[in-house]
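Final report, closing paragraph on structural work. Over the funding period we assembled a curated collection of sequence-structure pairs, and we close with a single example.
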Amino acid sequence: MTTSGEVRVLVAGHASGPVLVLDEPLSFWGGMDPNSGTVIDTRHPQQGRVLTGAVVVMPAGRGSSSSSSVLAEAVRLGTAPAAIVLASVDVIIALGAMIPAEIYDLHCPIVVCDGPLYERVAAAGHLEVAATEVPPVIRLT
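Its predicted structure, as stored:
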């Protein structure tokens, strides 16, 4: 099933995985352990959850510009989310996925969905993100 709604590609790629919704924005710097892919921010509602291989759906990133380096390292180590779906543009998160794509040819697609589509995506159990297609496609399965 192809969803309808606005999708903006920040970082191209193709990935699929189980949906993991983060109730609040996450700063990867200090919020995720890049060695394990685990949310380590003790104040975050999903503290202790593992992001590795999941399609992470969250409203936005939070905080430090160093988040991009932590996400880039997680992509390099294979502990990053399979893809990230945001409700609003976050250039710091996008940069964190662009760097390993350019340097290592390792991809973590990042897309932004409009409000109604974001809600449908967040309610899905599994997502395929094909951010290489024009227009981009998100399939709910």
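Helices lie at 67-77, 91-104, 115-122. Residues 68 and 95 are 6 Å apart (CA to CA). We thank the funder for supporting this effort.
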